[in-house]
Design goal:
Layout lengths: L5 H23 L4 H26 L2
Helix pairs in contact: 1-2
Keywords: Membrane, Transmembrane, Transmembrane helix
């Protein structure tokens, strides 16, 4: 089952780790609201790009 749905589970794992890391960073580091407003979406975009890269590498 993991082999047929491996890409889906990989994306879920990356996104879950990303959300956890994002919320942990918001609590652990006191940043200006503007930095958090820009930085959090940027971090999530980077995580989505990593998920896309993982999918692309898995096709070969």
């Amino acid at each position: 089952m993991f082999r047929t749905h491996g890409k889906f589970y990989l994306i879920l794992l990356i996104l879950a780790a990303g959300w956890g890391l994002t919320f942990w960073l918001q609590q652990a580091i006191a940043l200006a609201p503007a930095v958090q407003f820009i930085g959090v979406p940027a971090l999530l975009v980077v995580l989505l790009l990593l998920a896309a890269l993982a999918l692309e590498r898995g096709d070969h």
